[in-house]
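User: Could you walk me through two proteins back to back? I'd like the raw sequence and the structure tokens for each, with a short line separating them so I can tell where one ends and the next begins.

Assistant: Of course. Protein one, sequence then structure:
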Amino acid sequence: MIKKVLLFAFIILSFASNAQKAQRIGYIDMEYILENIPEYKEAQAKINNKAVVWQQNIEKQQKEIEKLKAELNNEKALLTDELIVEKEEDIQILEFDLKKLQATYFGADGDLFFLRQQLVKPIQDLVFNAVQDIATKRRYDFVLDKSSSLIMLYTNKKFDISDLVIKNITRSKKAIAAKEKQLKRNKTKTEPKILNEESQKKISDRDLKKAALKKKIEDKRAAQLKKREELKAAIEAKRQKRIKEIEAAKKAKEEKKNNN
């Protein structure tokens, strides 16, 4: 709310300080623009698919915990106090790991945030650059976002430059694609069939960053998978041990009953 008030105050002050000059104001609908960019839809689909998989992993672990809780409740009458405490502690550890997994996936600096930064931010930057280009060329003093938290009680469609932004982005992408195609053709013509050692070592910073990013994600997933497998193995080992202890307890109880 404070940001809205400050923005309106800034606009009013600008009007007052430039009373002799006609102000040019335009607005965009960011949601409308993004929905008309194919790359954005593809990025959102990838993000949603990943989020579904991550949520399924969380739900699977939650079910495992609920199963262990149910087993503990069923076996309590046959277990010693020491075994009950031990089982409860194991369940608490799993619940703690579950919270960490949720934070890893959906936390403030989690995988979902990281994936959005990787896939969506470049598209948002593309929109921002297009708005800047149009505003500069058409000499707009302000360009507002209709879909933001700013409340716009009335808008005149003739001041909506959303379609101009989409056209600007489309032209930019075509120009970039044409340039890359031309560069590829030139490279094919001039590049020798066998690259020398120096040429092979020339890897762009962008490629290096992509490779490092990919390795980081793969290492993180591998570490998580290894931890899960170790945790499952530990749980199963304890489970088998407790089964034997339960059987021993039952046997001891029966022997005591028979002796009496």
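----
Protein two, same layout:
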Amino acid sequence: MTASPTVRRRRIARELRQLRERAGMTLDVAARQLDMSKSNLSRIENAQIGIKPRDVRAALALYQVTGADAEALIEIARGAQQRGWWQTYSDVLPEWFEFYVGLEAEAAQLRTYEAESVPGLLQTEAYAREIYRRTAGEEGLERKVAARLHRQNVLRRDDPVRLSVVLNEAVLLRPVGGAVVMAEQLVHMGQVAQLPNVTIQVLPFSAGGHPAMSTPYVVLNFPDAADASVVYLDNLTLGLALEEADHVRGYSLVHEELCRMALDPAASLTRLAEAARYFA
């Protein structure tokens, strides 16, 4: 049973779409039988909106799914209506980023490349505050920082996420917030890298061109094989989740290549320590 309501909603969406197709029904036919609009059913099947357990029960009856299989899906639908901790920060987190945090909260593995800044899961409070101040201004600043720090619990929970980070060397040299903040941030990354579930690698300038020069990314894998992996891309104003297997495979291969091109974990720790001494 998945814990994140976001992941549960994805699971229900995918199951309902597959069951409808297996039953040989078009969106039009199924929507009419369920007394809802075609657009609403389409949004449900694409996980854009949720669906109430009673409506899941009606859909399962229509698709002739009964017994234990039906009850298991209805239970997942009930879980999808629960609130995730991140929803208490909905006043400062845009909806598209709440969706990502809901996926991150359930992920078993995260693989990411960052070109300009330290990933949120590795940021200190002072560094996070400066990043938000520079990219989003002062409004809601402290609540945004608090939400970012809360996200970091995934690294130290009972079954922690496995995190593989590749950092452009430029991230180590850009003095975000000044020398004191930057030195603290670099030391912090070195400490987090000691966790058995965290690997940090630095991609040095000497590596030259590489396959992720056009975009940072996060690849998320989940503990239940029924929950498909996701590639997540974002910028200042929106996020994009890519769920097609070809996209996930492509970004996974890119990450493998970056790991080969980057300094190994031990050498990366040494580089982090050198950069920290520079700002100290």
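The two ends are 47 Å apart (CA to CA).

Let me know if you want the two compared in more detail.
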